[in-house]
């Protein structure tokens, strides 16, 4: 139900971790699943054309994927973090060995590739392009893609919902389509004027969207709207934690990171750290931290519950 949030709260104190390494705007982030012993990883896509893999809890640099000849708009890890897929302005998507950094497969397109993701734990990759097409590639036969849906506008984002086994595609014309790649058919369409960003919870059951001054979320089990509220700033990104207790947003012009209570929609806190628009945000698989990527070329890590010991956040007992 639409509502108006209260005036912004005073900025609250939190020490974020700034992860350097990129030289241009960071446009997409993706945390891996937990691998072993609470270990997980973070990959970032950047307009400098050099995706970076980091150790998730601390943001420490692990390696850079070298091979693209244009801006990289998207970077995702597969289910067991053995492979990465990236989408680039050089008219290609690439599949990488996430452990060695080796360029495994190049998926050629006829236009800029804005987004890519793995189709579950298969050898399939889905891509979204400026030519308005969503394609599925079998990496064992990379020269024979299948166009599963054509949009009326350039495709800005594709995400695989492992729960529904559907591809979620957002375009530049305010449309979000949920597509069955096996039947090449649209199962459900959603409208969100002014889409800036879409995000999936880790379980693939909840889709959120930043659209103008609105924050929206849909339950993908029932295709019902569970959140739709309006704020007094332009929202550039939304992300919801795995427990569905917190919504994090980024501001397009005021550069602030805000948190809201998922149930009440009340603003919890606001933080400043970036020096440019926030382009993406995502929660770690355990929900303890979230990452934000910005026009300023940095990735920042934030605690969901500031003051607890986690990763590099260690506190002395007096």
Automatic annotation (TrEMBL):
One of its GO terms (biological process) is spliceosomal snRNP assembly. It holds the Pfam family WD40. SUPFAM superfamilies: WD40 repeat-like. The keyword Methyltransferase does not apply. GO terms for molecular function: kinase activity; RNA binding. Keywords: Kinase, mRNA processing, mRNA splicing, Receptor, Repeat, Transferase, WD repeat. One of its GO terms (cellular component) is SMN complex. The keyword Kinase applies. WD repeats lie at residues 65-106, 106-147, 271-312. It comes from the Eukaryota. This is Serine-threonine kinase receptor-associated protein. It comes from Coemansia reversa (strain ATCC 12441 / NRRL 1564).
């Amino acid at each position: 139900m639409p509502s108006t949030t209260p005036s912004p709260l005073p900025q609250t104190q939190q020490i974020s971790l700034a992860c350097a390494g990129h030289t241009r705007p960071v446009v997409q982030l993706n945390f891996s699943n937990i691998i072993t012993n609470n270990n997980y990883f973070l990959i970032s896509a950047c307009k400098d054309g050099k995706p970076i893999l980091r150790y998730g809890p601390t943001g420490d640099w692990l390696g850079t994927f070298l091979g693209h000849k244009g801006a990289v708009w998207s970077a995702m890890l597969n289910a067991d973090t053995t492979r990465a897929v990236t989408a680039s302005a050089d008219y290609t998507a690439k599949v990488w060995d996430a452990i060695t950094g080796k360029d495994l497969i190049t998926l050629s397109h006829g236009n800029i590739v804005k987004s890519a993701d793995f189709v579950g734990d298969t050898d399939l990759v889905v891509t979204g392009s400026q030519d308005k097409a969503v394609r599925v590639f079998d990496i064992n036969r990379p020269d024979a893609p299948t166009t599963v849906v054509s949009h009326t506008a350039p495709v800005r984002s594709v995400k695989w919902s492992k729960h529904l086994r559907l591809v979620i595609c957002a375009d530049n014309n305010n449309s979000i389509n949920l597509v069955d790649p096996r039947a090449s058919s649209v199962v459900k369409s959603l409208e969100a004027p002014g889409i800036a960003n879409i995000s999936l919870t880790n379980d693939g059951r909840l889709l959120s969207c930043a659209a103008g001054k609105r924050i929206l979320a849909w339950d993908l089990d029932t295709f019902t709207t569970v959140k739709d509220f309006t704020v007094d700033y332009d929202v550039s990104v939304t992300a919801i934690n795995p427990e569905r207790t917190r919504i994090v947003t980024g501001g397009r012009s005021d550069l602030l990171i805000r948190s809201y209570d998922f149930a009440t929609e009340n603003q919890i806190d606001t933080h400043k750290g970036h020096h440019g628009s926030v382009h993406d945000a995502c929660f770690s698989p355990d929900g303890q931290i979230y990452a934000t990527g910005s026009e300023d070329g940095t990735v920042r890590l934030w605690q969901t519950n500031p003051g607890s010991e986690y990763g590099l956040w260690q506190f002395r007992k007096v």
